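Inverse folding, one chain.
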């Protein structure tokens, strides 16, 4: 596996031999959810590219950014063992030569669900994903359904801007107790970790959005939203202290 910290080096190293390229962008602190994306890419493409970049422009909360877990050496070993060919680990200066003057803005759905609670979050996400897709130029890019709103916005951005890449959705990987795997789970204190699976239990139940929201609040969560729309039920809620950990989840519901 070749590791590039410079975009110019990366562009030079990227295969030009006509091989198919799969791409898995991540913010590191890898877990089995990320691994499932990489496995799928390795299966479906001749070359797999991954990236690790904790994108500051998508964090509306500086404490959340400061507390974001980093396990770089372990991540490199995991990517290598899974068969990643090329790993891009760029800096802010590399990714934002414009200082974030240019931004990709979606004006409707990005203001709903997580966007209603994280100011500018999806502008940061769409901007960095467009930059990464333009650098890597993959045939396919893999995104987890855990971040379902993100997946939909990226899929539609690619269609809107006629970008020549297939966006491949990947199922949510969960702990045995139902908690969706997330890098932020590393920051859950033992008490919060014990409470966290109730999110999945409740969104799978026949309770209404309102009832679920109330039950989460009773269990000690600070609920951002519980909302059913377009055949899915979405939830975001914060738990714990120092740091506060924001958890999201979603499931398909029968309409
Ligand atoms: P992140 O490092 O959190 O930005 O995630 C990188 C990619 O992994 C995104 O496409 C996420 O949706 C995906 N991902 C994160 N957690 C999971 C999970 N539990 N199951 C499946 N995909 C996931």
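Residues assigned per position:
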């Amino acid at each position: 596996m070749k590791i590039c910290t410079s975009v110019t080096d990366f562009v030079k190293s990227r295969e030009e031999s006509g091989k198919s390229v799969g791409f898995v962008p991540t913010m590191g602190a890898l877990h089995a959810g990320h691994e499932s994306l990489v496995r799928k890419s390795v299966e479906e493409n001749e070359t797999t590219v991954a990236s690790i970049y904790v994108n500051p422009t998508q964090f509306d909360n500086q404490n959340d950014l400061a507390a974001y877990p980093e396990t770089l050496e372990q991540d490199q070993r995991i990517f290598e063992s899974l068969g990643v060919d090329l790993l891009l680990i760029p800096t802010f200066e590399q990714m934002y030569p414009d200082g974030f003057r240019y931004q990709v803005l979606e004006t409707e759905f990005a203001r709903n669900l997580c966007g209603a609670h994280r100011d500018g979050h999806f502008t940061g996400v769409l901007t960095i994903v467009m930059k990464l897709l333009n650098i890597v130029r993959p045939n396919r890019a893999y995104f987890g359904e855990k971040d379902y709103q993100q997946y939909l916005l990226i899929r539609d951005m690619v269609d809107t801007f006629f970008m020549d890449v297939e966006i491949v959705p990947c199922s949510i990987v969960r702990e045995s107790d139902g908690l969706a795997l997330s890098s932020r789970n590393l920051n859950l204190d033992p008490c919060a970790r014990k409470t966290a699976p109730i999110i999945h239990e409740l969104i799978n139940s026949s309770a209404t959005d309102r009832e679920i929201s109330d039950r989460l609040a009773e269990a000690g969560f600070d609920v951002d939203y519980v909302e059913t729309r377009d055949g899915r039920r979405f939830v975001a809620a914060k738990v714990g202290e120092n740091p506060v950990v924001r958890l999201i989840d979603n499931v398909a519901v029968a309409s």
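The radius of gyration is 18 Å. The pocket of adenosine monophosphate is lined by residues 26-27, 33-34, 36-37, 143-144, 146-147, 170, 172-173, 180-183 (CB under 6 Å).
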